[in-house]
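Sequence in, structure out. Go.
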Amino acid sequence: GQHTDAVIADLARAMRIAHFGAPQVDDGKLLPTPTLSQILKWIAETRKAKCRIAVDVENEPVNRLVAPLTHVGLARGYDGDPRAPDKSAICIWLVKRDTSRVFTRRAEQQICDVLNGLLCDPDVHKTGQNLQHDKDVLIAHGYGPIESFDEDTMIEDQCLNAESPHGLDYLASRETDAPRWKDELKGSGGLATADEYEVRLYNLQDSARTLEIAGKLRPRIERFGVQILYRQKMETQDIARRMAAGGMPVSMSRYE
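Output:
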């Protein structure tokens, strides 16, 4: 079954590392501090190619729906999508730690407009890790209606390996050769105190590895015949997201 395959793959990877050392990781092209023109070009290329992307947002987790949206990470090509122009990830940095803006108001509005066009484009399918969080934050900050946000690596792994952890750090250690990047940053005081450049690299790794993991898990959903379960869990998650954001409608006539 799939659990046996996962164990065998883990053992084989551990043996390769023990014998040959840690493999070289192809990070693709990472853009932690892109210019306005680079952001506009990346998004235009992506929409033209209609390739799948990963989306990851960063802001204050305690007040995620009202705290400023500080970073939006986007990645393409890490899942092997042949339509992608390249393997690259871009961090759209909007707000500094002192709450000042990274771009001028006019430039930021231009970025937000083209970003919203990307998020609302039904031909560009989106992947997330626990995408309920990312959708909630994006919608709360005025983006939408978000279309084709239809793949969640956390839900995929729940369907394939129900008893295993499903966090991004664990999935990346199991499915990719990327060195661990979450523990070191969070263990040093978290994103709130980390160097701002390191936070942007963190955001890039989140989006890139999410898409890379999706490229591994996606074919297994079909291979093990759990497509219906996956669709049901995705639908349930979206219902839960709407309930969390706006409450649950109640028929007063039926209640009475």
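Check: The chain has a mean pLDDT of 87. The chain is about 50% helix and 10% strand.
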